[in-house]
Amino acid sequence: MSILKGSGSKYIGSSRKRGSKNISDSILKTSKRKTVKKIKQDKTKHHPFPEKEKIRLNRYIASTGLCSRRQADTYIKSGLITVNDKTVTELGTKIYPKDIVKYNGSKIKEEKKIYILLNKPKDYVTTVKDPHAAKTVLDLVKNACKERVYPVGRLDRTTTGVLLITNDGSLTKRLTHPKFNKLKVYQVTLDRALKAADLEKISKGITLEDGFIKADAISYVNPADKKSVGIEIHSGRNRIARRIFEHLDYRVLKLDRVYFAGLTKKGLSRGQWRFLTEREISMLKMSAYK
């Protein structure tokens, strides 16, 4: 920019003839445009995308549905992965979204994102693979799509209700990481009536073995049946709803998640599933990334 300023002072000071300043201004503007354009071209020549857009290679490979991130690392170390026709063996390598990635000579690309809402039944586990489990939630949606999907978060084997199944890793992280604290609503059936004093304790907060916790809201589902309670909570801590009541010496007979991150099980019978609508996907993402 100092060169432009120097040029400007020379041209403007060289003449006082009518129209000379206008000509000088025109020369300056043209010169500046060409210089800025050249700078931009030089930057984009070697950096077509901002550095922040880079993603880990193993994450990209997993997003194509080829394998898990752990298996992707094995492929990378084995020399089976190339990026823009160059073999990459270093773990932790980052790439741009438009880089060409190949596995064993064949190009791979990110697969279509799938979003499935399931009303989870009892006795199904939410792990992808469990040699000790007779039934997993993926058994219920195995014919839904060809993409490799997985449940978002975990529900106990005996817990029922709203469960999101997807292959969107970024969204999954936002919905399950404790720091994002997405709202969940449970309907709980206890072995005995919940005392009003205990309901008040849960509302104000109690201290569990892993720290303080309080419900956003809690109430009896039916004043005539104080064994059934509705509880709203943001915490993503493991088995938190059950542990709240067990801490006060209640046994949870049934635990049904009726709301999760804006999704409900309305219209879905136990064990049924459906794809999310475009509107639901948009709202889910808006909620996750706000």
Radius of gyration: 29 Å
| Mean pLDDT level | 82
Using DSSP, what is the number of strands?
17
CATH architecture of the largest domain: 2-Layer Sandwich
| Biggest β-sheet description | 9 strands, mixed
Helical content class? 25-40%
Quick one: overall form?
A: elongated
Tell me the CATH superfamily of the largest domain.
Pseudouridine synthase
Low-confidence stretches: 1-28, 34-49
SS-derived structural category: alpha+beta
Distance between the termini: 40 Å
CATH topology of the largest domain: Pseudouridine synthase
Query: Which class of the largest domain in CATH terms?
Result: Alpha Beta
Number of helical segments with 4 or more residues: 9
User: Percent of residues in beta strands?
Assistant: 15-25%
Please trace the helix and strand order, writing H or E for each element: HHEHHEEEEEEHEEHEHEEEEHEEEH
Query: How many individual domains?
Result: 2
Topology:
Elements: H1 2-13, H2 20-46, E1 55-56, H3 57-63, H4 69-77, E2 81-83, E3 86-87, E4 94-95, E5 101-103, E6 106-108, E7 115-120, H5 137-140, E8 150-151, E9 160-166, H6 169-176, E10 184-190, H7 196-204, E11 206-208, E12 211-213, E13 217-222, E14 225-233, H8 240-247, E15 252-260, E16 263-264, E17 273-275, H9 278-289
Parallel strand pairs: 9-15
Antiparallel strand pairs: 1-4, 2-3, 2-5, 5-6, 7-9, 7-17, 8-9, 10-14, 10-15, 11-12, 13-14, 15-16
